[in-house]
Amino acid sequence: MSQVRDTIQHVTIVGVGTQGSMIAFRNAVYGKEVTGYSRTRTSIDKCRSKIRKWLNYYVETGRLSQAEADAAEQRISYAESLEDACKNAQLVVENVPEKLEVKQEIFRKLDSLCPPDALLNSNTSSLLMSDICAFVSPERKALTFSVDHDDPIRNDYLEMMWNPSTSEVTKQAALSHYRTLGFEPIITEREIKGYSINRVWRAVKKECLYLWAEEYITPSEFDRGWMMEWHTNIGPFQLMDLIGLDTVYAIENSYYSVSRDERDKPPAKLKALIDSGRLGMKSGHGFYSGYDPETGNLVTK
């Protein structure tokens, strides 16, 4: 597939939580005009604060000049109305909780509120776009695709997946845009639950949760061994903390709801951890304790 010029300049992020704020940051740093949408002023304020800290870090480490950081921050605006957020969108990145009915309702609204040529994608780990966009118009379905971010700030990895309705024009536009942002997309050509690389990660994650829940090994000990063996700077348990344990639980439940196989059911111990308020990086504590929820840095273990 030949590369086309990226013409997307205005990106709307629906949901500015942990990953939504990172995606907004990435787009702004690479010169895009960004509108972040949330129903609550509190979420918007948290997003603004996190982005400011990340920009300061980029300045301190020499990745951006102060003028470049200030310009990136100026490129981000916020809206508490979905209609306002979508009116100029050329690409919408939906980033709401991993629940099919929630995403379907958002896409139903996006279909009516966005310009007719706006691309729509879902930042989803386990749900199928053909299900998410079940209630949008046929013309809009051709403009849809899925993405699965790992860590939009710290690395360039990204999984993308087409669905049966994705047009060739949409595929080229999507690839061009994400490559402009410095990503190196890994493409799953045919729709399958969980993408390709992410399905393998899910098998690792599932086994890690089992070993932890049954008290065979501690998260820190497993991560230490994983990083030594696979030469990574983060292990599976810390990665789950970064994703958010409530999101991890929702993803595992998504697989279980389809298979009804007890082996796919997330352990009760994970639910108990979530119910105690340990959600991972975003709450400051998960499998590990001592995250700075603003920057995601692990202060203590």
Structural features, described:
By secondary structure, this protein is of the alpha/beta class. It is 47% helix and 13% strand. α8 (168-180) links the parallel β7 (157-161) and β8. It is globular, with a radius of gyration of 19 Å. The model has no long low-confidence stretch (mean pLDDT 94).
Helix-strand sequence = EHEHHEHEHEHHEEHEHHHHH
Give Rg in angstroms: 19 Å
Low-confidence stretches are none
Structural class from helices and strands? alpha/beta
Q: What is the mean pLDDT?
A: 94
Largest sheet: 8 strands, mixed
Task: Please tally the helical runs, counting DSSP H or I stretches of 4 or more residues.
Answer: 13
Termini separation comes to: 46 Å
Q: Can you list the strand order of the major beta sheet? A: 3-2-1-4-5-6-7-8
What percentage of amino acids are in beta strands?
A: 5-15%
GO molecular function: oxidoreductase activity
Organism: [Clostridium] symbiosum ATCC 14940
Pathway: Lipid metabolism; butanoate metabolism
Protein name: 3-hydroxyacyl-CoA dehydrogenase, NAD binding domain protein
